[in-house]
Write a structure and sequence with these properties.
Layout (H helix, E strand, L loop, with lengths): L5 H26 L4 E2 L2 E3 L5 E5 L2 E2 L2 H11 L5 E7 L2 E2 L8 H11 L3 E11 L1 H7 L4 E3 L4 E4 L27 H9 L4 H14 L6 E2 L2 H7 L3
Parallel strand pairs: 3-5, 4-6, 5-7, 7-8, 7-9
Antiparallel strand pairs: 1-2, 2-3, 9-10
Length: 215
């Protein structure tokens, strides 16, 4: 009977096991590089990012993380962004700060075919250095809600004719910060809050989209 060198055999088995574990670790390393950051999902070529979901407080941080890992993102393809649910004050809020960052980084925005944006999603669409829309777009605008001063039930609809009201200022400032002229910022903002009440929505016509958003 042929003798087997047990030391060599055991070493070979151990080497094989280490090799298998090493391959597994390499696979995990590859899949650990995420392409999804909250509402943002980066394309395979790293040039575009799909946007789906409600803008929340963490969306700005997610955007920054995405741009660190994928600095060549040039366009946000908005698919379904129904609005925002964020914290803020008289000066700004997280959704508006996100739009400012998009504009400052010279990123374009595009509403895909049959895409839908509303409220804060519309503000995000407006923030692109270049703004384009696909076929059958649905772009909703309405008066913002959430109350102000000592009236928690108030909305922009209640002050839509008082253009000097302090509650309007952060939105007017936002549109100017994303490249609108002072007059266009005023025209678009008051168009949005006069289009529908807080719990209603107005879908922009092609003429309105071309007048206010396309650039």
């Amino acid at each position: 009977m042929k003798k087997v060198n047990l030391t060599v055999a055991m070493f070979s088995v151990l080497l094989l096991a280490v090799s298998i574990v090493g391959c597994g670790n390499n696979k995990n390393t590859e899949t650990a590089i995420s392409k999804t950051f909250g509402i943002f999902t980066v394309s395979d070529n790293g040039l575009t990012a799909k946007v789906e979901g409600t803008i929340v407080d963490t969306s700005l941080q997610d955007f920054h993380k995405m741009m660190v890992q994928y600095p060549n993102v040039q366009t946000l393809d908005l698919v379904d962004v129904p609005g925002s649910d964020v914290s803020g004050d008289l000066k700004s809020d997280m959704a508006l700060d996100l739009g400012r960052q998009v504009y400052q980084k010279n990123i374009n925005t595009h509403l895909v075919d049959n895409g839908f944006v509303a409220s804060g999603g519309t503000d995000l669409l407006a923030s692109g250095k270049s703004v384009t829309v696909g076929n059958n777009p649905e772009i909703g605008v309405h008066a913002w809600g959430g109350g102000f001063e000592d009236n928690p039930n108030a909305s922009a609809w209640d002050i839509k004719d008082d253009e000097s009201h302090i509650e309007h200022q952060k939105y007017l400032r936002y549109y100017e910060d994303i490249g609108f002229s002072k007059q266009k910022a005023k025209d678009f903002y008051f168009f949005t809050i006069r289009s529908a009440k807080e719990n209603d929505i107005h879908n922009m016509t092609t003429a309105e989209i071309n007048q206010y958003l396309i650039r």
